[in-house]
Design brief:
alpha/beta; Rossmann fold; 13-stranded mixed sheet; 13 strands; 31% helix
């Protein structure tokens, strides 16, 4: 079957499977290599004839890790997006644009874990997976030392995503989609990217709704910190400030090695993680390569822009997982504070309140657990970090947006995976396989007995929100909108129900200074 899609760059030949047509590795920019390395995305180079679109683009360069297992081969020329559509017609289906996570360092738009075929068929929607440059290639701030052409380099990864959304605006009607009904959805760094774009002028009008899973609008880095990371990187790769030719001449392996010298946070994995002092909190270094508040494409902190109304017309749906940090503390062996640090140093330092009293809010749920004190403290510490890194930023975003937009929904994924003896709980990334209906590659966290009813409830909620800005559907009880008074939250578990303020004001008030 000869399936031809028309784009502004040229004609593409797609592939039909199970009633869904896919186009993979679709160019939407010029290759970001050679003289284009560290530059913002450049216009796509048009082609003649019909180009086959049956092979995904390479994975963006990244260090080998558990997250990179099973991904396509790596290469710098990685900017090819994937499209799944029920038909090339004029039906104007809702469009859902996926942005993957991975701490701005890992993963790929072409991971098998977010194959869009199932969701496109189930919801009669068009799914687009947008890739972006990672690590130093996507987020190294070269600033004024390397010339005006490189002033935006610290936000290249986000600008790649914006270029993908511009491709949707200009082309998706030829693929059966509606460019006036685009929902961006993403997880972890993907959700953080969306939170960033909510505050970016150049992203305005490119999407109309947003679903953020385990990420919000508080992850952009300051200019000062970005410049510090750049100094460390340049020292690591032996390049002098301003020597763009030397930087362009580096091979990818040298760039990845330089990245690792900039990573102090054990969240990033074992490689490159340094020993931290007991008084340091596990999040003090944040994410080393992240969007930069550069005064240009990102003029101010995204949350400040949202408070001022930058995204006033965008309905939001936010998800967090009940035990986000256990993915890192239990599966990836990221250190958490021991008992003494947790009670007397870490919580006290972060909250400015009595550490023992604050810790009691987190240790109480585990007092009856039949396990060691060390495990109980580790679980309690992981819950506190979950609040700091995910729950509280989600609250800040929703509260900021509520001043301008009442169509807001919040949910928490509470179903605990039975894998690893149940020690992961409802951890970071667990919900992804429920959203897409397929296992997430080498990290199939839900196991083989993923509850079918829960998959259906979440998929139908996401699809309903993409269609109408309202996630309610017949298979769940009423899901009230979020507001700062009730803090209504849908809890997805074996039994799914809506509750008001499940975190509680005491835990939330601990972090009021963040």
């Amino acid at each position: 079957m000869n399936i031809i899609g028309e784009t502004t760059g040229g004609r593409l030949r797609g592939v039909e499977n199970n009633g869904i047509i896919s186009f993979k590795g679709v160019p939407f920019t010029a290759p970001p290599s050679g003289s284009n390395r560290f530059l913002p995305p450049q216009p796509v180079i048009p082609w003649s004839g019909v180009q086959d679109a049956n092979t995904v683009a390479p994975t963006p360069p990244q260090a080998e890790s558990l997250l990179s297992a099973g991904l396509p081969p790596q290469a710098e020329d990685c900017l090819g997006l994937n499209v799944w559509t029920p038909a090339l017609d004029n039906k104007k289906r809702p469009v859902m644009a996926w942005i993957h996570g991975g701490a701005f360092l890992s993963l790929s738009a072409s991971s098998p874990g977010w194959d869009g075929e199932t969701l496109a068929k189930l919801g009669d929607v068009v799914i687009v997976a947008i890739p972006y440059r990672l690590g130093a290639l996507g987020f190294l701030h070269l600033g004024p030392e390397f010339g005006e052409d490189y002033a935006e380099s610290g936000n290249n990864g986000i600008l790649d995503q914006i270029a993908g959304l511009e491709w949707i605006r200009d082309n998706i009607s030829a693929f059966g989609g509606n460019s006036d009904n685009v929902t961006v959805f993403g997880e972890s760094a993907g959700a953080m990217s969306i939170g960033t774009m909510l505050g970016m002028p150049s992203a305005q009008g490119l999407f109309h709704k947003a679903i953020l899973e385990s990420g919000a609008a508080s992850s952009a880095t300051t200019l000062e910190k970005a410049q510090g990371i750049t100094t460390r990187f340049l020292d690591a790769v032996s390049v002098q400030p301003g020597d763009i030719q030397a930087l362009q001449a580096l091979d990818v392996a040298a760039i990845l090695e330089g990245q690792m010298q900039c990573i102090d946070n054990p969240l990033m994995g074992e490689a490159g993680a340094t020993q931290r002092e007991p008084e340091q909190d596990p999040l003090s270094d944040g994410i080393p390569f992240a969007p930069v508040i550069n005064g240009l494409s990102l003029p101010q902190p995204p949350l400040d822009a949202i408070i001022a109304g930058s995204s006033a017309n965008i309905p939001l749906l936010l998800l967090t997982c009940n035990n986000e940090w256990r993915l890192f503390s239990e599966l990836l062996s990221v250190p958490t504070p021991d008992e003494a640090e947790f009670f007397s140093t870490w919580l006290e330092k972060l909250t400015g309140q009595d550490g023992t009293e604050a810790a009691g809010l987190y240790t109480a749920p585990y007092e009856e657990l039949d396990d060691t004190t060390e495990t109980k403290i580790r679980f309690a510490a992981a819950q506190a970090i979950t609040d700091v890194a995910f729950e509280i930023p989600a609250t800040h975003l929703l509260d900021a947006q509520h001043a301008h937009q009442s169509t807001l929904y919040r949910c928490r994924f509470d179903w605990p995976t039975p894998l690893f003896g149940g020690r992961l709980g409802a951890c970071h990334g667990l919900e992804i396989s429920f959203v897409f209906g397929v296992p997430v590659g080498g990290m199939a966290l839900a196991g083989t007995d993923q509850p079918e009813h829960l998959t259906q409830q979440i998929q139908q909620a996401w699809l309903a929100f993409a269609r109408t800005s309202n996630p309610n559907h017949k298979d769940i009880e009423e899901w009230p909108p979020y507001d700062p008074e009730t803090r209504s939250t849908m809890l997805f578990n074996t039994t799914t129900q809506a509750l008001n303020d499940p975190i509680g004001s005491k835990r939330r008030s601990l972090w009021k200074s963040l």
